[in-house]
Design goal:
The chain has about 170 residues and is an alpha+beta fold. The protein is about 50% helix and about 10% strand. A three-stranded antiparallel beta sheet has the order 1-3-2, covered by helices on one side.
Length: about 170
């Protein structure tokens, strides 16, 4: 029995020695690798730091380029010049506008009136948009639908008139 114990303890001791030697060899190789990395790592760390700095500089340069390009984008400008109109003449040139379609001809004339007033207001201002002050108004109306929708025919009108401003009212 004691021989078995001796063999077992010798095997166990030898195994422990083998494990210890392996562990020490592993530690030694790991330590030498760490030391090698430590020496080489200063170079690698400097290279990484350099790459990081270069990337930051490239990003900053790209942002500066974008800002510079934005600065030179041309913006559309609308320049309106006052038309040459005699001060005594209170009317503007003739304006022709087509209104939306409607189920009746009188409704289509109302739509043409609204469209004409919107366009006159846009071009000449609110003083000229009143339809009752317009001169030489003519309507051209016609059928706008090809067929009939549920037996209904639609009409569209074109209004041509000169927008005029009203007479000045006395102040209070």
């Amino acid at each position: 029995m004691s021989s078995r114990k001796a063999i077992f303890s010798a095997a166990l001791t030898g195994g422990l020695v083998a494990i210890a030697v392996t562990a020490m060899t592993g530690c030694a190789s790991a330590q030498s690798r760490w030391q090698a990395e430590a020496h080489g790592d200063t170079v690698a760390a400097q290279a990484r730091q350099h790459r990081r700095v270069v990337r930051q500089q490239e990003r900053a340069a790209e942002l500066r380029r974008e800002r510079r390009e934005e600065r030179y984008i041309r913006r559309a400008r609308i320049i309106r010049t006052a038309p040459v109109v005699d001060a005594a003449d209170k009317c503007r040139p003739q304006l022709a506008v087509v209104g939306d379609q409607y189920a009746s001809e009188s409704g289509a004339q109302g739509e043409a009136d609204k469209a004409w007033m919107q366009t006159a207001r846009w071009q000449w201002g609110e003083r000229y948009m009143a339809r009752e002050h317009a001169h030489d108004a003519t309507y051209e109306c016609g059928r706008s639908s090809v067929g009939s929708v549920v037996g209904q025919v639609f009409y569209r009108c074109r209004l041509t008139a000169r927008p005029c401003r009203p007479e000045a009212s006395p102040g209070k």
